[in-house]
Amino acid sequence: MERPRFSLKSAAAACGVSVSTVRRRRENGDFPGAQKTEAGWLIPLEDLLAAGLRVNAPSAPDEQPVSGADDLGEGERARLLRELADARHAQALAEQEARHLRDSIARQDAHLGDLRRAMLALTPAPASTPEPAHEPALSDAHEHPVSVPEQARLRWWSRRR
User: pTM for the full model?
Assistant: First the structure.
């Protein structure tokens, strides 16, 4: 079954806004499902609701409300209420699944962090080449005597006296 579609004038009356407001919002692309027919533009109910307009809102004082497309029978109203309840239930299930998936991803991220740290601990350190220690040759030792700290020299001299 197809959802109700409104002409510009009936959409304006159903939403309680002026025809120029509906026309301007259609031109701005607020109603992507609007279709041009020989009789004029037809705007689906979903587009009106998605654009933030309230259907069956009080009409503007200078315009007469248009009846017809927005009058729903009891059966149609009950069906729409069931669809709304089903959609809300599906939304609740989707939100619950999204929470579960976010928790699962967080646990997997923590586990991956632990595995990365373990891999780093198991990886050998890069091989470093030790620099050869420079040992002075005997000829070097005679040319450059080893310096003794100033304090040690003072103590040595003070003992000789």
Answer: 0.36
